[in-house]
TrEMBL record:
Protein name according to UniProt: Xaa-Pro dipeptidyl-peptidase C-terminal domain-containing protein
Presence of the UniProt keyword Hydrolase in the record: yes
Annotated Xaa-Pro dipeptidyl-peptidase C-terminal domain residues: 368-561
Keyword Hydrolase in annotation: yes
InterPro entries tied to this protein: AB_hydrolase_fold, CocE/Ser_esterase, Galactose-bd-like_sf, Xaa-Pro-like_dom, Xaa-Pro_dipept_C
Keyword terms, alphabetized: Hydrolase, Signal
Organism superkingdom: Bacteria
Endpoints of the signal sequence: 1-36
Length: 587
């Protein structure tokens, strides 16, 4: 799950294309006997920490400078036999009796031998996944401890991997409680992560644990079902995700690790049912099943109030902004967010040319101001906006909340028909139909979560609805899309969340038709071959005017230009049949 290095794992490996192939090949090569041979060929060469024997950089170069590393084991909170492993990094030389607030991250990527695949370390040591936080924020120098906990089934923890289900939730509760109760802890815990370990932060929020004071979540998934399936249509992740995490769970560990750690890492060898159960879970089709209900973080956020600071790429191809608005509406605590047209990256991450991939300076400064406020009670010296949002024009604005909606337009659309062909070789004329708006008299922003209702008279299969921003010369960009199963009757579903400004003189084109192959090859669609007859539709659009935007510092995200290039379209021409002012059909 990386476009960078193996040390920056991400939740969804299927979409980094060439990088995925490289990682998959490496994992496959180093699985089983080949991996075991590679591991046993590595000599032990550095001190290994225990619970009461700290190790510093001087004795193990995998320990960050200025840190003292210890290892610990503790039970999960569900009463099972699952035992969790934690690597703890505290400031080196901290006086005896000094208590520290704790930054906790819990997930699948903290194994000592690698995050996604075996990384050929010369010896064991703590994961470097968040060394950027340690160094960039001077985390230890600011008087924090960092605790990295392996979820069940990964690294040095026993148990079957659970994809953030009840077992993982019990682990997260146990990890928060354990970190808060250490004799060197102040009892104040903050969670930090990106992708999977950002999702565990959302789960932590939903637990309403008093010891958890703040969550920083970069590029999380807001509802696992909607990330795996789109209204009944499976994504490629229904297959690839389980396979990827099974490989991580069975990575060989290192010969100089503790015997207890190595035994835990081999848990799946004695419990082959773990991998099968994991695989079957992802293939569950029913969104109302207990499996998916337990992983609907947005719904489970109702009434939660842990302060939350998050980032969300609106051009994400990995952890898309589906159910984001629902989560934020259900969450009642303080919120801060960076939202913009980037892909699956960290707030501090830079492109090869040195530009920040999100485009905004000060990720670690703002993160630590957030943690200082809620874990230490230190009031911020800089007043950051609650929301810093980058539009598709590359400029940043500040908002108190998100989304800001000045008008909710309900737009009736005429019907049409299409053949549910799958359009694998490119759409044919009868694969979709398009409705056009009149050209806009002023710039109009679509911000929030659009919704569409379709009335179907005949046929069954799948439907894709795409929203195009069309310039006067006919060139267009798809800025939102969604798919669903469809049959006779009414079909209503949400799009992904959007934040896209249509310039004056541009038009909105609404395309309804078969599921088209896109750049990322996202859906595992099985076209019915049937003609789908739609008698009418209703599009709900949350709108706002950019005329009163309040500027905030930030540069254009480099990925924005890539997104615009990859998502160029040319919807079928037609006469305008609606406006964006809520006036509906005009002809």
């Amino acid at each position: 799950m990386t476009t960078r290095t193996l040390s920056a794992a991400r939740w969804r490996p299927r979409r980094s294309l060439a990088a995925v192939a490289t990682v998959a090949a490496l994992v496959t090569t180093l699985t089983g006997a080949a991996a075991a041979a590679a591991v046993t060929a590595r000599p032990a060469g550095a001190a290994v920490a225990t619970a009461d024997k700290p190790v510093t950089h001087k004795d193990n170069d995998r320990v960050p400078e200025g840190a003292a590393w210890t290892q610990h084991y503790f039970p999960s909170s569900d009463g099972s036999t699952v035992e969790l492993h934690a690597d703890v990094l505290r400031p080196e030389g901290v006086p005896e009796g000094r208590k520290l607030p704790v930054i906790l991250s819990i997930g699948p990527y903290f194994g000592h031998s690698g995050q996604l695949a075996f990384e050929h370390p010369a010896h064991t040591g703590p994961s470097g996944r968040f060394n950027d936080l340690i160094e960039g924020a001077d985390l230890l120098g600011r008087g924090y401890a960092l605790v990295l906990v392996d979820l069940r089934g990964f690294g040095g923890s026993t148990g079957c991997l659970d994809a953030t289900g009840p077992g993982d939730q019990a682990d997260i509760k146990a990890a928060i409680d354990w970190a808060a109760s250490r004799p060197w802890s102040t009892g104040a815990v903050g969670m930090y992560g990106k992708s999977f370990d950002a999702m565990t932060g959302l789960v932590g929020n939903n637990l309403n644990n008093d010891a958890l004071k703040a969550v920083v979540a970069q590029e999380p998934i807001w509802d696992l079902y909607r990330n795996i399936r789109s209204n009944g249509v499976p994504r490629t992740t229904a297959v690839s995700i389980s396979n990827a995490y099974e490989k991580i769970a069975t990575l060989p560990q290192l010969p100089d690790d503790e015997a207890r750690y190595r035994a835990a890492a081999d848990y799946e060898k004695a419990h082959p049912e773990c991998l099968l159960t994991n695989r079957l879970g992802y293939q569950t089709a029913d969104p109302d099943s207990e499996y998916w209900k337990a992983r609907d973080y947005a719904n489970l956020a109702k009434g939660s109030d842990t302060p939350l600071f998050f980032t969300q790429g609106m051009a994400e191809w990995n952890t898309e902004p589906e159910a984001m608005q629902e989560f934020l509406a259900n969450h009642q605590g303080p919120e801060r967010g960076w939202i913009g047209p980037w892909d699956h990256v960290r707030g501090n991450e830079k492109a090869e040319d040195g530009r920040l991939k999100m485009g905004r300076e000060g990720w670690f400064a703002e993160t630590m101001s957030f943690f200082d406020q809620y874990l230490k009670g230190v009031q911020p010296s800089v007043q950051y906006p609650n929301y810093a949002v980058q539009d598709n024009n590359g400029t940043w604005r500040a908002q108190d909340t998100w989304p800001v909606v000045s008008e909710s337009a309900t737009i009736p659309l005429k019907g049409g028909s299409y053949v549910d062909s799958g359009a694998e070789a490119g759409p044919a004329p009868d694969d979709s139909f398009v409705h056009w708006s009149a050209p806009l008299g002023q710039a109009t922003r679509v911000t929030g979560t659009p919704r569409i209702s379709l009335n179907t008279a005949q046929g069954f299969g799948t439907v894709m609805v795409r929203l195009h921003d069309v310039a006067p010369d006919g060139t267009a960009t798809v800025f939102d899309e969604q798919v669903s199963t469809i049959g006779p009757g009414n079909t209503t579903f949400d799009f992904k969340a959007a934040d896209w400004t249509l310039p004056a003189s541009h038009s909105l084109a609404v395309e309804i038709g078969t599921t088209q192959a896109n750049v990322l090859g996202d859906w595992l669609d099985t076209p019915s071959g049937k003609t789908i007859g739609i008698t009418g539709a209703e599009l709900e659009l949350p709108l706002d005017s950019p005329s009163d935007d309040q500027a905030t510092p930030g540069a254009r995200a480099p990925y924005l230009d890539t997104y615009l290039l990859l998502n160029k379209t040319k919807p079928a021409p037609g006469k305008p049949s609606f406006t964006l002012s809520g006036q509906g059909e005009d002809g």
